[in-house]
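User: Quick sanity check before I run a bigger batch. Here is a single chain. Can you write out its predicted 3D structure?
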Amino acid sequence: MQYQYIQTECEDNVGIIRLNRPEVVNALNLKLIDELTSEMERMDGDPSIRAILLTGSDKAFAAGADINEMAEEGAISMLWRDQFAVWDRISRISVPIIAAVSGYALGGGCELMMNCDIVIASETARIGQPEINLGVMPGAGGTQRLTKAVGKVKAMEMMLTGDPITAEEALQYGLVNKVLPVEVYYQEALKLAKRISLQAPNAVRLIKQSVLKAQDHRLAEGMEYERNCFYLLFASEDQKEGMKAFIEKRKPKFTGR
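Assistant: Done. Predicted structure follows.
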């Protein structure tokens, strides 16, 4: 499928999506988010794709929302437009989403990064929620996800000043998994996505769902969900293959069945 603002490809069992609005450092307009969400859902429904790699350019993952689309809007038009509803669909993607982040990841770009499951950043990454400088606030989950990730006091500082943090600071606060030179961060993210894509697909999806449950539910509810998922996987052929391969001291060949 041809898109205006994203580029897509597939390498082995990894679907790759690259944000592509270089003239505005990948600012997120409504059409880009719609294209991104539609392609993620398409990949999620393709059994041959077992992980998604999301990236931008070395200069910018995404520098924020497209302000030109919102500057003249009013409260009622923004309410009816409900531009953040589509973001909820991203959070329901069942395969792991690995982000390769370099340069600016600000505002909506930071929120998009936090919607991903694993983040590999370059040393040049600058991450933050600067909406306060425009007289507004985050609207796609920034106040919620950032607070859960870095804690109340750091989240307050970042969102009330608008100051971004460096990749190394993001690593210390648990916002990213790894920080690498800009020359290698993308290849490392792709390598990780390919490694995950070789695991048992059903187990991968249920692990992702269980971890997300841990963020939003009480411990007892999460534990019950985890146990039910564990038992369910014993209905899969991959469980039999994985345990047989372990006993036979060989690498398993998972099929997703």
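Residues 201-216 form the longest helix (16 residues).

User: Great, the batch can go ahead then.
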